[in-house]
Input
Amino acid sequence: MATNVLSDRLARLEATGFVTKARDPADGRRHVYSLTDKGADLAPVLSAIVVWAARHTATDATADAVAALGEGGGRPAGR
Output
């Protein structure tokens, strides 16, 4: 992905409150992006889309792998 495209997408995600941006403490020239609660709350929706796509399109994923995607509502561990 071109860096200008990545920068634009990250800026949009930050502007809409899905991620936060902070300086990298190890290298002040870099930034670190983190999901906000709003961004993390989108995980179940994205997981559901992945599961739906795996069920309705040709994939190399096993049936067990597809089933595992749908377990737990797609929430990240520890949330």
